[in-house]
Here is the input.
Amino acid sequence: MKAIWSRNNTERDRAEESGSELSMIPNWSIALAVVAFLGAQYLFHFVMPHNKPGMLPMRLMMSYSCGTLIASYILMIGYVSRDVRRRGMPAALWMLIVIIMPGGVGAVVYFLLRQPMLTRCPHCTTEIASTYHFCPQCQFQMAPVCGQCFRGVQITDVFCTQCGHDLAEDQAPARLRVFRD
Ligand SMILES: [Zn+2]
Ligand SMILES: [Zn+2]
Here is the structure.
């Protein structure tokens, strides 16, 4: 097991990850959402007939809620279009499901079934799922595991919760041990 990943690297990667959730929404879907919202205002205030003057509050409420609903749906489609790629899922299929299934059901299905995010092995840059404990190409250790049964453990555990193995004997890589104290 190799230990070449420095702590600085880990912190930088984590910062990039946390700041990128909002930037996952592409510009085209933001523009489209604004257009859809303005379109809803136009539809309710100019296209629909104004035969009852007392209906203005109702009209404002309807145009605002409809516009917001459509706009957020478009933003979500934009988010999914980028999110599928970093999880290695079939993009065309999932875009179709999210767009076609009515009332946002497709999006719910997507968020229930989506695969874990792909990361790159810091040692050999192979694309791997974030749930892996070891890189399948170079055996680089990605997460703390028991040295006897190789199930995942917490870095603060002294003994393995599955087989009772003494974890101090395993000589976990230094980059994993830094979080223990
Ligand atoms: Zn690797
Ligand atoms: Zn174990």
